[in-house]
Amino acid sequence: MLRNVSRQLLRSSKVYLPQVAVVRTQTPAFISPSIISKRFNITQSASTLTKEDVLTRSVSVLRGFEVKTKDIDLQTTFVQDLGMDSLDLNDALVALEEEFDVVFDDKTANEIKTVGEVVDFVLANYLPTEQSINHTIR
To answer: What is the mean pLDDT of the chain?
Structure first.
């Protein structure tokens, strides 16, 4: 009885209920990721960074700072060899974060002493996020 009365009230009075949008955060179970990648020809590239690539890019970033030496290798220390203070080191790590799209947490940033440690961290934490779409299929 109460249900009938509430239905009649809703029909007679023009009550507008807000529309709620449902957003799916996962692919439905009946659609597998392989079907999506085949249909849209999406490929995700794996990390192709090598230690030499990371070192080369790191050296080019570090040369943008005023450093004591231009000979930078894996054993080069930031404070002794490059003459950086803590503020310069922080700025260098921020520049390297932007270069490689990684984040040095506070603990790691305080422990890093050499360029080799930066290279190892980048290799361990670099994840390519770009997905390339084959533009030959339209």
So the answer is: 77
Q: Is the separation of the CB atoms in 132 and 72 below 8 Å? A: no
Catalytic positions, written as ranges: 85
- Give the sign of the dihedral formed by CA 56, CA 119, CA 106, CA 90: negative
Give 138's pLDDT tier (boundaries 50, 70, 90).
very low
Over the stretch 7-53, which tens digit does the pLDDT of each residue have? 666 666 555 555 555 555 555 555 555 555 555 544 444 557 899 99
- Mention every residue, 6+ apart, whose C-beta is less than 8 A from residue 96: 58, 61, 102, 104, 118, 122
**Neighbour-count burial for 24-63, b at 16+ CB within 10 Å, e otherwise:** eeeeeeeeeeeeeeeeeeeeeeeeeeeeeebbebbbebbe
Using alpha carbons only, how large is the chain's radius of gyration in Å? 27
Q: Is the alpha carbon torsion for 97, 102, 103, 109 positive or negative?
A: negative
Domains along the chain?
51-125 (1.10.1200.10)
Residue 117 has pLDDT above 60, yes or no: yes
Contact by Cβ (8 Å): 117, 80 = no
